[in-house]
Amino acid sequence: MPHTVTPVAKRRLAAAAAAASVLVLAACGSSAADGTASGDGDAAASGSDRPESLTFASIPSENATGIAAEYAVVLEAMEGELGIPVELQEATDYAAVIEALRAGQVDVAALGPFSYVTARDGGAGVEPLGAVVDSADEDPGYVSYGVVPAGSDIAELSDFAGRTVCFVDPTSTSGYLYPSAGLLEAGVDPETDVDPVMAGGHDASALSVADGTCEAGFAYDSMVTTSLIESGQLEEGALEVVWESEVIPGSPTVVSTNLPQELQDEITTLFTERMNAPWLAENGYCASEDDCVLPEEHTYGYVPVEDELYDGIREVCDITGSASCVEGE
Fold this sequence. Notes:
The chain is an alpha/beta fold. The chain folds into 2 domains: 7-138 and 250-316, Periplasmic binding protein-like II (D-Maltodextrin-Binding Protein, domain 2), CATH 3.40.190.10; 144-246, Periplasmic binding protein-like II (D-Maltodextrin-Binding Protein, domain 2), CATH 3.40.190.10.
């Protein structure tokens, strides 16, 4: 279906796309942690500790233009409903986002399930808001794929031993944690029995397998079956799926506990009750429900998630003993 964004979102998209290539998390703008506040307007009306601006951080699922488009409507709705400018910050990996959260340089962030647990249990000061889904009654979740080039002699995870294997990054749930658990179960140590390559993104991992840079690799399901094919970057049938993980709980967006509690509550209400296609269309942030461009190509929007949903991640951390699971502790 065609996707459009409102005029305000188009202006935001252009600005975010231009800025994404030069943004560095260590140089974030004003946030609640800075102790700065606006002297007029909506920000001042809600208290002196209300920040002049908010910073929203994520890593790209595909490319810089993609991340700007992916979050354009979300950021527009945040600005419109909170009355505070929101700056999009692109990070190279989840570890950078976690450290920026811990330092009070990021206020809201899109994390993976694994990086959420790392941030939460490592004292980064975050509360889960919601995860994106395709319908209001859907449980957020996805799976990781182990992929090889079409025609490869690799038929299962045990065959990954001795091969060059692409992962996403050490704090990626479907691009490292669950694949590591799968490899260990197959008798393959992900650190010593393969030649690991950290591709930096799910798209990069899948494409590196397709072009022969890696003999095998991991990426989340829709990146392999939908996103890269529809974008023309991957030919249908170029990759074969040789492994599939158990269902992974959906990637959460989080709010920093460095923010004033009143503002945390406002952001929580926005994401858990309003940040969905029906509400966004009704309130003018999208031309229609079908035209809402939402993160991760989901068609409904956010549903609430609780910390307990991610206990399965903690169990997989126990299985793998990954150093990333205890980062910051």
